[in-house]
Amino acid sequence: MSDILDVVLRLAAVFVVFLVLPLAIGQTEHKVMAHMQGRLGPMYAGGFHGWAQLVADGVKFAQKEDIVPTGADRRIFQLAPAVALLPYLLVLVAIPVGPGNAVGQFIDAGIFFVLAVMGVGMLGSLMAGWASANKFSLLGGLRTAAQLMAYELPMLLAAASVAMAAGTVSLPGIVDAFHWWWVPWQIVGGLVFFTAGLAELQRPPFDMPVADSEIIFGAYTEYTGLRFAMFLLAEYAGIVVLCGLTTVLFLGGWHGPFGADGLGWLWTLLKTALLAFVVIWLRVSYPRLREDQLQKLAWTVLIPLALAQIALTGVVKVVTQ
InterPro entries per the record (predicted)? Predict the structure, then answer.
């Protein structure tokens, strides 16, 4: 009975995190962009510092009419938002927040699990584009597929590098094996992993699949109301997952300065929040890449860097053993 209760409490905690953190990042993005770009609107909703902006967005989405295009594949069209969102909930179950039992579920091959499930989430965009009976949605879906194929490989290679350094594919095992002197020689892999993750989430400057000036809003053009809100929630949940994984794999997870591991969960959240701010800052600061530039960055820059990182990791492992 105690084991069942433990599992239920862990899953409940993961579910609460899944509901709270993406919304917190969405609210933060409103405020950060308002300050960086001088936007007045998000600072006034509800009075003090626009505290009710997120509530207003939720009410707006709930009031929108739920429309399914006449020529759409109705079942696939309706299922796509859930396929885009739920994989990130599964990934959060495997990400360790602190030492010991501070993880939803310990998985021996955790790094393979999280990367495989994150890839499934991208199918939601493909399903949405294919099922919408709209040429702009279809084009956005095809661009999503091309982007996924290009950036999945450098992301996997960068993750393989840190797994090789730690000698394990378990996420808690990788954090346990972490040493601060890893940071200088694994930093390239970390940058590759984070950049490829942004591209898979279709976040600026890698948002070509939803380029409004060309294809309206890509695979999501025909979506309204709560279904569209689910796609937005999937994007913010993806930011939480990407920043959390980058923290665990490349920034030491719960390890803090001066050996203060007693605050492990706090260090994990702080590092994740800092990386989430970087994601928002990149949206504000950098223009969208063209499709050819996006593909060139993956195949001619990130993949060679990831391969070089694996070679460097092999050399360091041989020299230090």
Answer: NADH_UbQ_OxRdtase_su1/FPO
Q: What is the pLDDT of residues 170-196, one digit of tens each?
A: 999 999 888 888 888 899 999 999 999
Cα–Cα distance measured from residue 250 to residue 186, given in angstroms and rounded to the nearest whole number: 7
| Confidence (pLDDT) at 304 | 94
pTM of the model: 0.91
CA–CA separation, 254 and 271 (whole Å): 9
Q: Name the DSSP letter for residue 195.
A: H
The contacts found for 64-71 with CB under 8 angstroms, 24 or more apart, are: 64/224, 64/225, 64/226, 64/228, 65/224, 65/225, 66/224, 66/225, 66/226, 66/227, 67/222, 67/224, 67/225, 69/132, 69/133, 69/134, 69/222, 70/133, 71/133
Query: Please, are residues 242 and 198 in contact by the beta-carbon 8 Å criterion?
Result: yes
pLDDT tens readout for residues 257-282: 765 566 778 889 999 999 999 999 99
Q: Alpha carbon 58 to chain centroid distance?
A: 21
pLDDT of residue 262: 66
What does residue 126 show for φ and ψ, rounded to 5 degrees? -65, -45
List of residues 6+ apart from 250 with CB closer than 8 A: 162, 183, 186, 187, 189, 190, 193
- Separation between Cα atoms, residue 53 and residue 227, nearest integer Å: 19
Q: List the alpha helices (DSSP H) in the chain.
A: 2-37, 53-63, 74-94, 110-121, 123-131, 135-166, 171-177, 182-200, 212-215, 225-250, 264-285, 291-297, 303-320
> Whole-angstrom Cα distance, residue 15 to residue 218?
29
What is the 3-state secondary structure of 73-120?
CHHHHHHHHHHHHHHHHHHHHHCCCCCCCCCCCCCCCHHHHHHHHHHH
277-312 pLDDT, tens per residue? 999 999 888 888 888 888 899 999 999 999 999 999
